[in-house]
Amino acid sequence: MTLLRWPGLDAAPQSRPARYPVLAGVSAFKLRYLDNAGNWRQQWPEGRSASLLPAGIEIALTLEDSEKIVRFIALP
């Protein structure tokens, strides 16, 4: 995985971002968010819940050798 960083917020159309490696050996990174009703959401915030925190977060990494690592984090 690579982090792309542009030199400014309002970069010119021809400007190129600097590339920084973040996670070596990772082919996919996904997040899901658990709302307070127990439903998984693909993005956060959603609609009126913009001021609320999710009840939990799922982090899923897929390594280049196809191994998948999934972690759940409960939020207070």
What can be said about this structure in brief?
The protein has 76 residues and is mostly beta strands. It has strands at residues 2-5, 18-21, 26-34, 40-41, 56-63, 68-74. Helices cover 0% and strands 45% of the residues.
Question: Could you characterize the architecture of this molecule?
Answer:
The chain has no helices and six strands. By secondary structure, it is mostly beta strands. It has a domain at 24-76. A four-stranded antiparallel beta sheet has the order 4-3-5-6, with no helix packed on it. A two-stranded antiparallel sheet has the order 1-2.
Q: Class by helix and strand content?
A: mainly beta
Helix percent reads under 10%
Could you tell me how far the N terminus lies from the C terminus, measured between alpha carbons in angstroms? 29 Å
Gross morphology is flat
Strand content: 35-45%
| Biggest β-sheet strands, sense, barrel | 4 strands, antiparallel
Provide the spatial order of strands within the biggest beta sheet.
4-3-5-6
Averaged pLDDT: 89
Number of helices: 0
One letter per element, helices H and strands E, the order comes to EEEEEE
Q: Give the beta-strand count.
A: 6
Radius of gyration: 16 Å
Model regions low in confidence, pLDDT < 50 over at least 5 residues = none
